[in-house]
């Protein structure tokens, strides 16, 4: 195998917490890498999350319009959220779908996992493929600081939105392209 060091861990020699918050912590670390280098890095420790490609039997996808402070703008993205402590990724996907859209997941399959930016954050995001019936819907339950507008969009139009650069969330693009490449017959 060409990738002989894949998965080897570094050794954290020292860690100082700089900030502790409700969603992430910021730490300074001194790390001995698998190559025996000693490096100093700032790291955002972030819990796991899920990103949902929720699909109807006729291949319509739920897209959200939601304000995101990182780009100070309304964006188009798939539903997503943090995984609660003790919750599996599948359970988080079911919960997030209900909270953000009111829809009920019929089937959940984890497609793959991606990192947000593994150079400075521990966040790992599970890309979930969720089947649901658009005719079965309950109430949405947003967090107190969010408001989301949902749209059901044919998959081919979703691909066009990615191509046009109107969808640029990394997790959303990864979910859509992974589905398109490997999961089209789900």
Automatic annotation (TrEMBL):
- What are its GO biological-process terms? nucleoside phosphate metabolic process; ribose phosphate metabolic process
InterPro entries in the record, alphabetically? Nudix_hydrolase (IPR020476), NUDIX_hydrolase-like_dom_sf (IPR015797), NUDIX_hydrolase_CS (IPR020084), NUDIX_hydrolase_dom (IPR000086)
Checking Pfam families in the record gives:
NUDIX (PF00293)
Record's SUPFAM superfamilies? Nudix (SSF55811)
Question: Per its UniProt entry, which superkingdom is the organism in?
Answer: Bacteria
The Gene Ontology terms for molecular function here are:
pyrophosphatase activity
Give the family from UniProt.
Belongs to the Nudix hydrolase family.
Listed name of the protein:
Phosphohydrolase
Q: Which organism is it from?
A: Xylocopilactobacillus apis
Q: What is the lineage of its organism?
A: Bacteria, Bacillati, Bacillota, Bacilli, Lactobacillales
